[in-house]
Amino acid sequence: MAEPQDPIIRVRGLRTQFGDQVVHQDLDLDVRGGEILGIVGGSGTGKSVLLRTIIGLNRPAAGRIEVFGKDLAAVTPAERLAVEQRWGVLFQDGALFSSLTVAQNIEVPMKEHLDMPARLRDEIAALKIAMVGLPPEAGSKYPSELSGGMRKRAGLARSLALDPDLIFLDEPTSGLDPIGAANFDQLIRRLQINLGLTVFMVTHDLDSLHAICDRIALLAEKHILVIGRMADMLRHEHPWVHEYFHGPRARAARPNNEEAGG
Amino acid sequence: MADGWLKVATEVDGAVRLQAGGHWDARNVTRLDQHLRGLQPTNGAAVILDLAQVERLDTAGAWLLYRTRRQVRARGGQADYAGLTPAHEAMLDQVAANDRPVEMEPPRQPALLAVLGRVGDGTVDVMIEARQQIGFLGLLLVTLAGTLRHPRRLRLVPLVYHMEKVGFNALPIVGLISFLIGVVLAYQGAAQLQRFGAEIFVVNLIAVSVLREIAILLTAIVVAGRSGSAFTAEIGSMVVNEEVDAMRTLGLDPMEVLVLPRVLALVLTLPLLAFFADMMGLFGGMLMCWGVLEISPALFLERLQDAVSPWSFWVGIIKAPFFAFLIAMVGCLEGLRVTRSAESVGQQTTRSVVTGIFLVIVVDAMFSIFFAAVGV
Ligand SMILES: Nc1ncnc2c1ncn2[C@@H]1O[C@H](COP(=O)(O)OP(=O)(O)OP(=O)(O)O)[C@@H](O)[C@H]1O
Ligand SMILES: [Mg+2]
After folding, report:
1. A199 CA from centroid of ligand 2 (Å)
2. In terms of CATH, what superfamily is B5-97?
3. How many CA atoms lie within 13 A of B337 on its CB side?
4. A203 with A125: CB under 8 angstroms?
5. Nearest to B33 among A103, A120, A128 (CB)
6. Partner of A27 for a Cys bridge, out of A14, B166, B230, B361, CB 3.0 to 4.6 A?
C-alpha cells in the first residue's frame, strides 16, 4: 500500500554492544513511510535495545541510523528537536511521570512544544484519553493509582499527544485484555490510515501481527533475519521462524483465510 | 511548515460556509482555535464545514471541526460537513466517538477548607505514625527474639555488608567532624578560662562535653543523615518496584530480610563509631591545647585522668546502641511506608531523617535526667 519512496527509518551496519556482549551486528533495516512494521524475536534478542538505539537513547558502537532522512548522530540540537516532535514513543511499561496525573502527562509534550491555550490542551488531552480507551475518571489519577494495562494506554495517549508521523511502540498490547488489545490494534490501524502514520512496533502478540502489521521483521542471530509480509513468514524455512509462526499459539491466532496461503 | 487556514463566506441562501484548508494538525490548531472561537455565533443560519481543501487532518484538527459542529448544533443551529474524503470522515467519526467528559484534575477544595484539612491530616498522620512506630518496635523485638532463638536465621552476609556501609565507611566523616569540634571547644574554652587563669580546666571542659554528649550526639546525627536516609531510600525503592510484595509471596519476611540486618548493623557499629568520635574529639582538643595554651600532650593526658571518671566515657557509649536502634528503626519503617510512587520515596526519606534526629535528641534528654537522678 505504501508507494515506493525513501524509507522513514534507514539503519545500516548497526552494531550495539554492552561491554563485551554484542547485541546487534551488521544490522540493516528499512522502515517505509506509512507502514506498520512489527518487530518480532525471542526474549533478550535486542528488540527493545534496537528501538532505544533508533530513538537515540543508546549510542551504537558502529553503523548509521537515519530517521526522516537525517543522520541523528550528526544533526544540530535544533534539528534533533524537530525530529523528536515528529515521533512518539511508548515504552514497555508506560514510563509515565509519576508526579503528574494522566491528563498532565499527556499535556507535557503539548506544553513543551506547542503554544496551545490551556483550554484547548485540556480538550485534546481529554480526547486522547477517550481515544485510547481509558475510563473518564482516569484523567485525574496518578500513575501509581493505575493498573499496568491502564498505564500502558496512558503512555500511548502521551505518545500520540502531538499527532506524530512516526510512533515507536514497545510491546503495546502486552498486559491488555483481549478486547482492549483488539481495540488497540484497530486504533493504530485507523491512525495509520488517517494520518499516514508509520508504526515501528515491537510485539509478541501474534494477533496484532496478523491483524495490522504490513510487514514483519524477525530479529535473530544479532540481525534482521527475515523481513516481509505474513505470507512470506509462513513460508520461511528457518527452524525458529517456522516454530514461531507455526507453533500452537500461532495456529490459534491465524485467521482462516491465511491458512490456505500458508 | 505548511499552514492551515479557514475562510468564512456567506452563501446565497444565507448559510455560513466555513472553508477549511491546508494542514489542520497539532502544529496549527492554536491559531485555528483562536480563529474559530472568535467567530460570532450565527443564529439560525446553517453552517457548512467544508473540508474539500484540507490536505492533512489529524485528531487535533478534527477535534476543532467536530467541536464547532457540536457547538452550532447545541445552539439549535444546523451544521454539516461537506467535501469529505473517506479518510477525513473516518477521522471525524473517530473523534466523535471519543467525545465524552473526562475528569482532568483531582477535585479541589476551597482554600480555607484545604488548610484546615491539611492541619487535620497532618495531625492524624503524626498519630498514625506514632502508633505504627510502636507497632513496628514490637514487631522488630519479636523478630529479634525469634532470631535469637534460631540464630541460623540471622542473615550474616547482609549484616556484614551493612556494617561496612554504615560503620566503616562513616569513619572519615565522623572522625573529621569530631576532630574539628574538639578543636573548636578547646579554642572557645581557652578564650574564656584564660581570663581566670584557669586554662588547665580546658581539659575538663573538653573531656566531659566530648565524652558525655557531643561525640555521640554528633555521630548519631551524622549517621541519621547518612544511613537512616539510605535505609529509607533503599527499602522505599523496593516497595515502589513491588519487590517487597514479591518477597512476601515468596515466603520471605521483609522484617527478617531487610529490617533486622540493618538495625543490628547499626546497633553494633554505632558504639564503635562513638568511641572513634571520642578519640578524635579528644585528639583535636589536645592538639589545640598544645598549640594555643602550651599544654603539652603529656600534661593533657595526665589532667585527663584526673578530670574524668570512667563513667563519663561510659555515659556516652551506653547511649549509642539506643540511638542506633531508633535511627535504624525509623529509617526502615519510613521505607516500608512508601507508597507506589517515586515522589513518596523522597518524602519518606526526609521524614526519616527528621524523625530520627528528633527522637535521638528526645532520648538524649531522657538519658540526661536519668543519669542525673542516679548520680553519674
Ligand atoms: N542497559 C543495559 N546494559 C547491559 N545489557 C543490556 C542493557 N539493556 C539491555 N541489555 C542486554 O541486551 C539484550 C537485549 O535486551 P532487550 O531488552 O533489547 O531484549 P528484548 O528483545 O526487548 O526482550 P523482551 O522481549 O524480553 O523485551 C539482553 O541480553 C540484555 O541483557
Ligand atoms: Mg523488550
Report:
1. 16
2. STAS domain (3.30.750.24)
3. 22
4. no
5. A120
6. A14
